[in-house]
Fold these 4 entries.
Entry 1:
Amino acid sequence: VVRQFEQLKPHVVLLDINLPSYDGFYWCRQIRSISTCPIIFISARSGKMDQVMALENGADDYITKPFEHEIVMAKIRSQLRRVYGDYAASHEERKVELDGLTVYLERLEMQLGDRKIQLTKKETILLETLLRRSPKLVSRETILEKLWDDSFVDDNTLSVNVTRVRKRLTELGITDALETMKTPLSVIELTVEDQEDEDPRFISIREEADQMRRGLETVLYVARLETFEQDFIVESISLKAAAEEAIHELKRFFIRNHVYPEMEINSALMVHSDAKWIRFVLVQLLSNAIKYSSGSHGQKVTIQAYESARSIILEVKDQGVGIPKSDLNRVFHPFFTGENGRHFKESTGMGLYIVKDVLTRMNHRIDLVSVQGEGTTVTITFET
């Protein structure tokens, strides 16, 4: 595809998200690495996060199906005028330079010697802010303020973009150029590890450290979604072993909330998937089940698996608060916390969205059934 693009040198590119082998986001990044021509997504997927991801990966516009032909043509003409015609910039290109590294602010690109790498808009803003103030320290608040000029972001988004910029710099051969000044989470965990469990101060610190650890892991996995195809390894895995690993990781969370796991999985039950991503999915689902079951002593979370006609079913079932019927059709939407989000402070609205995204990429199906006041059952279907 890239070779054909270089041969044809199109003036504008129209992309869909759902494509064979690799999705439109992937090809958008590939095109952006060699060209600044306008890219417009045209897709039936109308979710907010799909549109955000398209623009973050270098697209100039996003049109949802069904669409009006006249509007599409008008947008194409507008992009052509902006890049090649009457509105094309004639002034000197804006850029920031430091020690041989150049960041081009309009074309969202950085260059060192003859090597070039395409950036997202947020990565460009982050690099510009750091380079303009080098070698001084730049506060978290200053960076967030700059990023907020583009769109509202939180600490997790900032962490993801710092990780991405580090990776981009490493691709150019620049290592250890970006440092963050913080108290390592591992130091906090080691500090409280040897303390007496009865001390309420250290119990509270340990709880916060566990919560931070889960949040940090979620951020890192979100960052890995950008290169999912390269990070995805299919193998035969034991569902029982995967469930046991996830339960062990959350043992303190279970105990602290007086919720206890009940596992009904035959050790011989195997599926073809990625062990690392399945563990991540199970940790997310179990965390939700524990969180929404807390408050009543002796609650159980059941993890069971069984064979169906032409598939293997894995279920995570809790006896918690359940989900209001009015919220059920939106639980997989990004940032949606619903009515329960008003009562549970840890709700981010991203857990189920990420889980569905991951499982969809691995060709597994996820379903959710819930009754308010009775509990929730999440089902994952592995085709055999």
Entry 2:
Amino acid sequence: MTVARERDATASVASAMLERLVQQFASPYDFLRELVQNAIDAQSDSCEVALSMHRDGGGDRVVFEIAVTDAGSGMDEAIIDDQFTRMFASQKTRDLTMAGGFGVGFVSVFAWEPEVVLVQTGRRDEGWEIEFDAEAAYVKRRLVDPIEGTCVRLLRRGHASEYAGIALAVRRSLHRWCRFCPIAIDFCDLGDGHEASARRERIHERRPGGEPLEAVHASADTTIVVSFTSEPRAVLLRHGLVLAQGEPQHVLPALASQHAGSLDHLDVWASSPSLSTDIGRDRVLHDAGRRLIEQRIGDMIGQLGERALAEIRQLVESAAPWDEERQRQYTFLHAHVACERSIPARVLDTHPLFRTRDGATNLLALRKAARWGVVSRTSPEAAELDVLTGVVPELWASDDDEEPWLAPLLASRKLHCASREQLVREVSPAAGELDPGVARACALLVDAGVAASVRRGHLGGDGRLPLGVGLPGATTHAVVPVVPLSIREPVPLWLDDRHPLYAIGACMPDHDITVGPAALALAITTILRGDLEAVRRAIDDELARQKVPRRR
């Protein structure tokens, strides 16, 4: 094989290898991340990305230019020859070897399909220009005047109508990968070069920290922050550059299997040199470094739940006034504790989680105090309602507490919750006795041990509630079944005679209990979640006394 043919073969291999490397990058704009990474490695304190276009003849033909400039340490001839260009072919020699990896990231610039890439760099009173063509072959020239830092310019022909799309893609790529960088990143949208159309934007997002409740790990170059959030997210970084981001269960699948539910309300931010990626930097490798980071995150999730419980306890046991700020913090903490499925049930049962007028209480005490299986929630400003004492415990909680955490937590202990306004109604006794058909039904309820007594009255002003349960020792208030009640004792009942249920019972014949009274008694018992079997027995006993055949 002649020397010329050997060179041609080498060039062919070089081109194929370069193409494969370029294909490793998911987006043609990923080169921006790589050049920013180079700026960070060069210890630059800033990096500017400028986009512009220049007229190319008539019509809307233009040349797009993307220039990435840093103020880092730059490169001298030795670095250029021994590291930077080792992955590319010289236009003079067409020689390519794969020694070294310095240029792997730089390869990504060719994914944008530039026609020319111009690199100007300098170090220690040297200045150099390396010009690459579309095939990545290059020419190196010495600059007359030395420069500091590095500037990479990509040039590509196109149409002016494409400019807005390119600007958007550049901005999105910088924000996606570089918004947490430790150096200043500026995007300069220069347009056609007129000063009036130029726009400068700082690409920056505040690093996590200072949240109401968070766990922080900081050692050497590794920083991990785990905090509660309403918008779950996980971000993995190295030296401030984003490696992976998205929903935590997708970014951290190993943790998702260990902490089911917990990741649904967490913001996880982890930056560490221990995290490694594939050559395209689009996939974080599942190696020992990643496993170490995930183990630390898992430990921090447990710590966060413990701290939330501790802060709730501090809130409910404090003698300080229960103001709006304390209520907001209480709601915030409880909403996130509700997502922490790793907290043992015994801890939730015995930990002071609730505030009452008498002080802090826990689930076990609450369950014991809720004789009818229902809990009232009210505000600290509401006047105390003595008639509820010993039957329906009252918690200090707001409307914002009920659905996110309070109702599900109580339901897990077979308790139900409603606001005092919904649950407790003032009773206005109605004149007259019960209608005969209703009276027969109520007699069955008394015989079955469901009711101690039954009276007619008005529960509130709208007549939409069929009945209420009278509170012991009180004739002015009743608990209405807006949530399921669990009553296992005879109780005084109030029937609202404006409700259709009462009207139906009133028009039923009282001489035949198998038609109206029995049906009404069973309906009332169902509403109360009482002992239906006991009512059926009472009906059978009454039928036996009347010697009426039982209906099946």
Entry 3:
Amino acid sequence: MNSQDIIYSDLFDIRNNFNKPVTSNFINYLWRCLSKLGIVAIKYAFEGQSKLIETLIELRKLFTTTAVMEIKGYTNLVILAVKGDMPELELIGKKADQFEDIYNLQFKQMLDSITWLPERFDR
């Protein structure tokens, strides 16, 4: 069975009321720490489209698969960066069903709110 790890990062600096910049050193560190099928999930306070695009561009330098997830009722976004190919959403949906009743969260609805960005072509 393939294992998959997830690194969660919250970029928002509450003291200064803005997101910490995503540096190439930080992204390289995340890349090195992840397993072959690992995913980075970054909580991101939306500060405008240009800042979001800058962050996505930095991530795309290493991660071939990236996505943005909106969570209904919240202004924050979750940026996903996958070390491998795009995950099988159908399989994730089946696993999410197991947790729906336990945690009373709407995982399926969250999955539907993911916007996957086009793959990089420089593989």
Entry 4:
Amino acid sequence: MAGSRLLAGVPGDGAPGVGVLVMAPIVPCREGPSGRASTGRTAGRGRTLADMSTHAKRERLLFADLLEAAGPDAPTLCEGWRTRDLAAHAVVRERRPDAAGGVVLGALRNRLERVQAEFAAKPYEELVQLIRTGPPRLSPFALKQVDEAANTVEFYVHAEDVRRAQPDWSPRELDAVFADALWSRLERTARLVGRRSPVGLVLRRPDGRTVVARKGSPVVTVTGEPGELLMFLFGRQDVAKAGLEGDQDAVARLRLSRLEM
């Protein structure tokens, strides 16, 4: 896992001190199975995704289901990481704050890699179950507001990291309420993440609503559904179903850039 890179510290929905931690891919993203993901699978203890009351919980359980179905050695969109490594990352993020700080603090980077390697060596089924059951009771992530703010995008992106690394995938059909929730989070994080764009960057929904991720000239406008715009903004340009408009050279530079913090 030492060869993988983390994108860290993207604010959530205003919950103090909460960040959304997502993976930034290094290698070109690959197309991939799944198609539309089921939302009726059993999610442990008799729960189903349909029973979950928040977007974050539903995405968490979908992520766990996809990890379970893929097995421990399936590819992901994160260079150097198989599904086992991605699962270990998600568990450490919620359960080992002493190590998770290595995402942003270079002094803790070796500790983070060591702890993630230790978790990756655990039985894969155990890792998936830890994701599925959620954080410890005393964790800030156990609070509904914090979980929703910090984990909605986190688990949406990671679920897609598993799905889109497989052959013959197709975009999920997101309901309007969830799409709006993703757009709301995109509005809050666009300028922070988009500051690494080499050109001016505007994100636009098909209905015409826009958010400026980076001011500047020339400008490239990226159009797509909120989930696809998130994938693009968080470094998954090659697998995001989005259209780009602007100067040809600027578009090429944006496609090749690493949109990360």
